[in-house]
Amino acid sequence: MKGMTLDQAASVLAQLGNAHRLAILRLLVKAGPAGLIVGEIQDRLELPASTLAFHLKGLVAAGIVVQEKEVRSVRCRPDFRRLDAVLGFVKEQCCMGLEEAAPARRRAAG
After folding, report:
1. I need a surface site. Which of 1, 7, 58, 59 has the fewest CB within 10 A?
2. Domain ranges of the chain
3. Rounded to whole angstroms, how far apart are CA atoms 21 and 64?
4. Is the dihedral of CA 24, 50, 63, 40 positive or negative?
């Protein structure tokens, strides 16, 4: 998942700017690669079905949750590669200094 753009990372992070979505994702991360059935998520977080469906749709669209149909239920799993890519994007320039990122007008004045 190398080469994530600023817009792609912003889109994923925007989905996590909602408390319900963040709670859903944290629960799925806690469950691990096996994930959880939608009904289990609903029971654990005590969310109405329509609210949960709405928020899961956003997480799936952002690519950080994957859904798979299992007979009469849907299993949700976190996409750890996508999550790692987003967090990597946020941290990729950690501690590199700010000099090369300074606006030209500030460098010229200094």
Report:
1. 7
2. 6-91
3. 11
4. positive
Max Cα–Cα distance, the chain, nearest Å? 66
- Sorted by sequence, the CB contacts under 8 Å of residue 108 that are 6+ apart come out as none
- Would you say 37 and 73 are in contact if contact means Cβ atoms under 8 Å apart? yes
The 3-state secondary structure of 26-71 reads: HHHHHHHHHCEEHHHHHHHHCCCHHHHHHHHHHHHHCCCEEEEEEC
pLDDT tens, position by position, for the chain (110 residues)?
467 899 999 999 999 999 999 999 999 999 999 999 999 999 999 999 999 999 999 999 999 999 999 999 999 999 999 999 999 999 988 888 887 655 655 555 55
pTM > 0.85: yes or no: no
